[in-house]
Recover the amino acids of this structure.
C-alpha cells in the first residue's frame, strides 16, 4: 500500500477526533508518570524541564531538575545568578548552550516582561533558545493555549496514527505534524493532550517495535491497521561523525596544586573548565611529544610528562574525541602560566569541585583521584 502524506490526503478525516482526544487523555490521566515538573504548571518550571529534556532522557534529567530548582527556585534567582554557578548546576547534562541561552532568556523576561513568562506565541518565540517546540510546550502546558509541541516522540506517534511517510529528519516536515496537532489538539485540555502524545511516544509508541497491544489509541492508528507500524517513521540517517585525537594531562606544580584551563566563551563547551588538552594532528610525533611541544610553547614551562592515566572516547553529535590522558608536573609554582590573560588557574583538590567540567574531564578527574587513592 502506498503511504500518503498529510499534504495530499484526507487521512485526518479518518480519525474520530473527539474520541481520539478522549482515549488519549483518559489514558494519560490514569497512567502518567510522576515527574517533578508535573507538580504544577508554573511556566518557569515547565520551561526549565523542557530545556533539560532536549536530547536527554527523563531518568537522567530528574536529579538535575530537582537540584536546579533547589539552587534557582525562581526565574529571578536564575536571572541574577553567576554563570559559573549555573554551569556547575548543569554540569554533566551536556549541550551547555541550552543553559546559557536559558539564562539569557530569563534575564530578558525579567527586564522586558517584569519576570512574567510571555503567554503569546509571538513574544515567547523571540526569547533566546526558545524554538517552536519549547514555545508550544510552555504555552500549552503552562497557559492552556492550543499550540502544538512537536518533538521526535510526537512525530513518531503521529506518523503511525496518520500514516505519514515524510522524512522526520528534515526540518520542513515538522510543519506537517504541527498542522496535524492543530486539528487534533483538545482546546479544553491542551496541557494533557500534548503531554499525552509525548508520553505515548516515550512509553508505548517507541522506536523500532512499539507496544501496540498496550496502546490506548490503537483503534485510531492507520499504521497498526495496515501492519506498518514498524516501518514508520521515515528517518534518514545522520552524517557520519568524525574522530578527533585529543591529548590531555593532569598537571601538578611543586605545591601540589592542579592546573585547569577555562575554555573560550564561544564554541564547543564554552566557558567550561578542563585539564590542559590539545588536538593532535601530528603524524610524526607521539601523543606525549605533541602535548609537551604545545604546552611548552604556550605556557613557557618545562613539563615532565609521566605515566598514562586513561584512554576514553567522548561522543558528541558531530564528532568523537579520541582521548589519551597522562599525568605530569612542573618543578616550580608555575606562576607565569596564570599571569596576564592566559585562561589557566592553579587550584587544590578541594577547590576543583567548585568548577564546572564537561563529562569527559570529570572522567579524567575521577581516574586521577582513583589513582592517587590506590597509591596512598
Amino acid at each position: 500500500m502506498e503511504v500518503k502524506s498529510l499534504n495530499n490526503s484526507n487521512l485526518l478525516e479518518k480519525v474520530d477526533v473527539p474520541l481520539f482526544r478522549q482515549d488519549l487523555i483518559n489514558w494519560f490521566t490514569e497512567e502518567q508518570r510522576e515527574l517533578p515538573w508535573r507538580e504544577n504548571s508554573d511556566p518557569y518550571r515547565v520551561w526549565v524541564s523542557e530545556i533539560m529534556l532536549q536530547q536527554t532522557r527523563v531518568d537522567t534529567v530528574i536529579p538535575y531538575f530537582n537540584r536546579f530548582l533547589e539552587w534557582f527556585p525562581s526565574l529571578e534567582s536564575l536571572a541574577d545568578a553567576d554563570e559559573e554557578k549555573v554551569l556547575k548546576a548543569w554540569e554533566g547534562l551536556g549541550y551547555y548552550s541550552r543553559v546559557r541561552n536559558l539564562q539569557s532568556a530569563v534575564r530578558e523576561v525579567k527586564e522586558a516582561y517584569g519576570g512574567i513568562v510571555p503567554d503569546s506565541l509571538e513574544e515567547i518565540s523571540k526569547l533566546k533558545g526558545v524554538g517552536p517546540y519549547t514555545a508550544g510546550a510552555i504555552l500549552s502546558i503552562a497557559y492552556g493555549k492550543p499550540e502544538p509541541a512537536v518533538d521526535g516522540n510526537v512525530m513518531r506517534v503521529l506518523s503511525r496514527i496518520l500514516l505519514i511517510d515524510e522524512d522526520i529528519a528534515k526540518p520542513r516536515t515538522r510543519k506537517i505534524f504541527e498542522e496535524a496537532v492543530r486539528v487534533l489538539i483538545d482546546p479544553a485540555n491542551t496541557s494533557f493532550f500534548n503531554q499525552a502524545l509525548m508520553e505515548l511516544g516515550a512509553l508505548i509508541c517507541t522506536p523500532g517495535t512499539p507496544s501496540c497491544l498496550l496502546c490506548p489509541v490503537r483503534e485510531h492508528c492507520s499504521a497498526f491497521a495496515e501492519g506498518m507500524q514498524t516501518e514508520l517513521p521515515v528517518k534518514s540517517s545522520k552524517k557520519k561523525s568524525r574522530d578527533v585525537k585529543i591529548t590531555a594531562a593532569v598537571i601538578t606544580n611543586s605545591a601540589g596544586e592542579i592546573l585547569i584551563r577555562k575554555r573560550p566563551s564561544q564554541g564547543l563547551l564554552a566557558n567550561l573548565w578542563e585539564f590542559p588538552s590539545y588536538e593532535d594532528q601530528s603524524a610524526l610525533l607521539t601523543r606525549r611529544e605533541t602535548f609537551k611541544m604545545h604546552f611548552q610553547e604556550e605556557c613557557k614551562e618545562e613539563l615532565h610528562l609521566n605515566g598514562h592515566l586513561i584512554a576514553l572516547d567522548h561522543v558528541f553529535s558531530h564528532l568523537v574525541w579520541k582521548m589519551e590522558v597522562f599525568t605530569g608536573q612542573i618543578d616550580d609554582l608555575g606562576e607565569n602560566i596564570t599571569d596576564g590573560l592566559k585562561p589557566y588557574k592553579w587550584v587544590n583538590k578541594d577547590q576543583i569541585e567548585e568548577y564546572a567540567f564537561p563529562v569527559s574531564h570529570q572522567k579524567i578527574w575521577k581516574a586521577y583521584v582513583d589513582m592517587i587513592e590506590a597509591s596512598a
Q: What stands out?
A: The first strand starts at residue 242 and ends at 252. The mean pLDDT is 92. The CA atoms of residues 161 and 208 lie 15 Å apart.
